[in-house]
Amino acid sequence: MKLKLNSVNRRVGYTFLVCLALLSTACTKESDALAEIPNIPEAENVVEVEQELITVVNNHRISIGYAALQYSPIAHEYANKHNDYMIAQGDLSHDNFSARASGIAAEVNAEYVGENVAKDYDTASEAFQGWLNSTSHKKTMEDEFTHTAVSVKKDASGNFYFTQLFYR
Q1: 77 near 150, Cβ under 8 Å?
Q2: Can you give the pLDDT at residue 120?
Q3: Cβ atoms 167, 147 nearer than 8 A
Q4: d(CA 113, CA 136)
Q5: Which of 100, 114, 102, 17 is closest to 69 using CA atoms?
Q6: Where are the beta strands (DSSP E) in the chain?
Q7: Is the pLDDT of residue 83 over 70?
Q8: What gap in Å lies between CA 21 and CA 72, rounded to an integer?
């Protein structure tokens, strides 16, 4: 999913450009879904897989002539919260993407934000390959972004959830 943020008369307008889906997950209408789960537990990050996925994505970008993406702790915070939300829901989603994009834009003055999500892959390489095999996810990884962060967390059953946020 991508969201371009345009500044018009010092007001930020939002236009959805592309709706990404993975594993037959449809983008959902923005809702106050976080309010439906008042106490979302925070799962532990799988740091090694996060680092590996950023490396794999950056190596891919470099191999096709694009610059490596810089790590963003702000995007990581938003990606973490979204993974916790998906784990609490038990499913993959882009719910509340515009809120994540707005938050990132407000904190770092981003003009364009994108997101890839995945679940149930066992390794960073498998998640990357899944995104690479999807035209829309591949386009997001190869877009003209400058910053990224990846959150990888496990649910209670040991299933991995992945959220990668991008911005420029």
Answers
A1: no
A2: 87
A3: yes
A4: 14
A5: 114
A6: 2-8, 11-18, 70-71, 112-119, 147-154, 160-167
A7: yes
A8: 24
